Each structure stands twice: as C-alpha cells, then as structure tokens.
Amino acid sequence: MSAEVLPTHTPALLAAAIDRAATLLRAGQVVGVPTETVYGLAANAFDPEAVAKIYALKGRPAHNPIIVHVASAEMARACAADWPDLADTLGAAFWPGPLTLVVNKSGRIPDLVTSGGPTVGIRWPQHPFMQGVIRACGFPLAAPSANLANRLSPTNAGHVLSQLGAQLPLVVDGGDCNVGIESTVVDVTGATPVILRPGMITEPAIRAVAAAAAVQATGPRTSPAPKVLRSPGLLPRHYSPQARLVVWKWRDEAELARRVAELQVTPEQVCILVHTQIPLSGRYPQVMLIPDDAEAFARALYAELHRCDEMGARLIVVEELPDAPEWVGIADRLRRASAAE
Ligand code: TXA
Ligand code: MG
User: Most buried residue among 160, 244, 304, 313 by CB atoms closer than 10 A?
Assistant: First the structure.
C-alpha cells in the first residue's frame, strides 16, 4: 500500500479530504492528519481496535497514553468523568489551540487510549481540517504525532509519507504546521495546574489565566502557580533526529571549530542551526538560519532537523536558546533530542 495524499488548499479540496478521511475513520482505519502543532495519526478514540492499530503502526510502547482530539466543549466533557473549573477556564482561554488538558477519563474512553491510567489528555485543535473531520465523524479522534516511536515529529505531509506512507491508506496534506512543536500538556485534576509537557502556550500565560480565575472564585489569597512535572511516556530521549544533536554556545568560530573537531566530525558532516551567531568563515557548507523569535523558531525547527537527517548529517549543532518562558517548550524538545540513548 502507498498512501493516497489529499490536498486541502481550496474549500472544495478541504471538503473532499474531510469526507474521505471521515469515511476511513468510521471504518476503523488510521489516517495521517494535519494539526497546527504537528501531524497526527488519527483513529476513532471510542474504538479500541482502531486505537490498537495506532500503537502497532508507530511501534509505540503501551505505557505511553494518546491524546484525544475533540471539536466542541460537549465532546470534551463526554470524554471526561468530571469537568473541573480549571479545565473550563483554560479551555475558554486557549481552545481551539495547542493545549492538552489532562482530566479524569469517562467510561467511553478505552483503557488502551490512556495506557490503563485513570486520566485522559484532551485537545481541541485549531486546524480547520481537524475541526471539520471531527465534526463529520461525530466522535473524538485519538492521535499521537505521526512518527515512528522516538523519532522526530512531522510538520508537513512529506515527513509523514517518508516515515509511514507505506502503511497508511490516506495522508491529508494540510500544509506546514503553524505552531511546529507538540502541544503544552497540563494536568487539571488538582487545585493547581501542573505542566506535564511545556509547549508554545507558556507557563506565565497559564498562570495568568488560572490565577485570574482563582481570584474571581475565592478572593486574592489563593492564586495557583502551575507546577512542572514529568508526563508518563515522556522518555529522556525523544523527538530525535537520526544524527547526534548538541546544543552549544561558542565565543568565536575557532572555539566552534575546535569542538566540532573534538567529536571527530568533518565540517561537511555537520549541520549548524543558528539564530544569532552566524559562522561567516565559509568553513561549514551546512549553516541553517532559524529566526530569532520563539514562534518562528518553533515553526521551522523540525523541518530543519528533518532536512539535516535527509542530508545524512552526522552531527547537528544548535546554537543555545534564550532563557525566557516562550523558549521553554523548544528547549525541552532539544534537550530530549540531545539526550544520550
Ligand atoms: O500537539 C500534540 O499534542 C500532538 C498533536 C497530534 O495533537 N500530539 C502529540 O501526541 O504530541 P504524542 O502521543 O506524540 O504525545 C502525547 C504525550 C504523551 O507522551 C504523554 O506524555 C502526554 O502527551 N499524555 C497523553 N495523555 C496523557 C495523560 N492521560 N496523562 C498524562 N500525560 C498524557
Ligand atoms: Mg510524539
């Protein structure tokens, strides 16, 4: 099998892609879909047999729960046993968008989706294809990122096709992902929001919304600050390109050259991703400029890393990122990509 690829760049094409995808999803199949964060591998979240196909396709360990995508507040509530005020508050502020809320799961969500756990991650994505296809199906879609386990997430249809095209009946081409890294995952089962995976919706943004709601509800003394914890299934090494990846800061090009040489890699075998410190000597054929702006950087990052892999790089050097809240999600992905196996 080789995946059919359907474009979505006119209203008629979008409608046709939604139609075809919904038909396959209703039949219990898995489809490659665009979202605004990264591409996903979608299946009917209420159908354990369909969800089992996702695990098999990805080679995903069974202990890693899958996010459920909805297209309305009612659908979100149908997946949850209870709907905390905090979920209402954060959902109202950031949905549809790159935020996943972890809540207690309802009986409609199969154990396979949550890896047997009592909670489920729910996201209302912003991408028009996702909104359309979920409404057309009438059921939520379980969808992890559309990459093989521990590989780099895809941010365009080509990335999905090169990793999984042979195993899928359909990949919907929704263009380049607008956000570019995976959603922020926030546990809202307790009194305080807990950030399980940082993303482009930042800790201060979540804190501001949650604190304002808490002040309204109980007066000014209890404003919850979000905590940051580890999510199940988030391994230290994850989101990885094939090449070794390092994040470095260097004083000058001589230092950069020395450190590259120490790793016994030639200038031709290294890809250098910079946002401010541009090597100008001409020594490195592969220098990629990424914008010095967190949103634009996130949008470009995975495509650049995929390109490094396609070029057969042995080493990827990424210039150290600014230490600011809007860069935390990106820094998290680079840390995981650079972790030793
Ligand atoms: O942006 C995204 O979130 C993308 C798109 C496709 O929506 N999806 C995505 O899914 O990144 P995935 O499977 O690659 O990562 C999901 C992660 C899990 O590894 C886990 O860390 C966390 O989300 N997660 C999911 N359900 C959870 C739960 N019930 N409790 C805690 N963490 C959960
Ligand atoms: Mg993933």
Answer: 160
What is the per-residue pLDDT across 21-63, written as a single tens digit (0 to 9) for each? 999 999 999 999 999 999 999 999 999 999 999 999 999 888 8
Q: Half-sphere exposure of residue 71, counting CA atoms within 13 Å on the CB side?
A: 16
| 290, 244 contact by CB (below 8 A) | no
CA of 150 to the centre of ligand 2 (A): 7
* Contact assessment for residue 237 and residue 340, using Cβ atoms and an 8 Å cutoff: yes
Domain range spanning residue 133? 4-217
Span from the CA of 280 to the centroid of ligand 1 (angstroms) = 40
Closest ligand relative to 152 C-alpha: 2
pLDDT tens-digit series, residues 248-299: 999 999 999 999 999 999 999 999 999 999 999 889 999 999 999 999 999 9
pTM here is 0.93
User: Residues 16, 147: one domain?
Assistant: yes
Same-domain status, 164 and 277? no
150 and 279, same domain (yes or no): no
Is residue 234 domain-resident? no
Say whether both 170 and 279 belong to one domain. no
Q: Domain check: are 266 and 192 in the same one?
A: no
**Distance in angstroms (rounded) separating the CA atoms of residues 44 and 54:** 10
